């Protein structure tokens, strides 16, 4: 027997879907700039978080699928908001976990200081150790 997977909590009332993307910035909100290399170099913790979320889910997301995440980086480099733009998994617990994982990462502060919007695609697949194999072949 394998140990039970850790529970994936869903925050009640959390709206993690935003098919139209993030809301527009106000005219008074500053727009910053981050280079692609700065963004990519900061994604290590998010990759680990996404793997943990995908490995812990027991819902429909356990089969994998494509998910696109929209996030807004604030002037301090922290994620100001995040949501799921596209979700092929249909798993609310997985979406909530992915949004939590995204909100916990930090990027370099944009220069000039301001908000930076990013969209990240993920191709989730179950780990080979999690895939069931037939008992009889």
**Number of E strands:** 3
- Report the span from N to C terminus: 21 Å
Order of helices and strands: HHEEHE
Number of helices: 3
Physical arrangement of strands within the biggest beta sheet: 2-1-3
Fraction in beta strands: 15-25%
Contiguous low-pLDDT stretches (5 residues minimum) are 8-14
Description:
This protein is α+β, with helices and mostly antiparallel strands and 137 residues long. Helices cover 23% and strands 20% of the residues. The chain is built from 3 helices and 3 strands. The chain has helices at 36-41, 44-56, 92-103, and strands at 65-73, 79-87, 116-124. It has a 3-stranded antiparallel sheet, with helices on one face. A hairpin with a 5-residue loop joins strand 1 (65-73) and strand 2 (79-87). Helix 2 runs antiparallel to helix 3 (92-103). It is elongated, with a radius of gyration of 17 Å. The two termini are 21 Å apart. The model is unreliable at 8-14 (pLDDT under 50).
Task: Give structural attributes.
alpha+beta, 23% helix, 3 strands, three-stranded antiparallel beta sheet, single chain, 137 residues, elongated
What is the topological layout?
Blueprint lengths: L35 H6 L2 H13 L8 E9 L5 E9 L4 H12 L12 E9 L13
Antiparallel strand pairs: 1-2, 1-3
Summary?
The chain is an alpha+beta fold. Helices cover 23% and strands 20% of the residues.
């Amino acid at each position: 027997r394998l140990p039970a997977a850790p529970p994936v909590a869903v925050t009640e009332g959390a709206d993690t879907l935003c098919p139209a993307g993030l809301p527009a910035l106000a005219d008074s909100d500053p727009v910053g700039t981050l280079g692609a290399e700065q963004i990519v170099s900061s994604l290590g913790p998010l990759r680990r978080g996404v793997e943990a979320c995908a490995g812990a889910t027991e819902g429909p997301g356990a089969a994998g699928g494509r998910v696109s995440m929209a996030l807004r980086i604030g002037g301090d480099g922290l994620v100001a908001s995040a949501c799921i733009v596209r979700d092929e998994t249909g798993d609310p617990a997985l979406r909530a976990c992915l949004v939590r994982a995204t909100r916990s990462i930090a990027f370099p502060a944009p220069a000039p200081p301001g908000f930076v919007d990013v969209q990240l695609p993920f191709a989730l697949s179950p780990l080979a150790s999690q895939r069931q194999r037939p008992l009889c072949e």
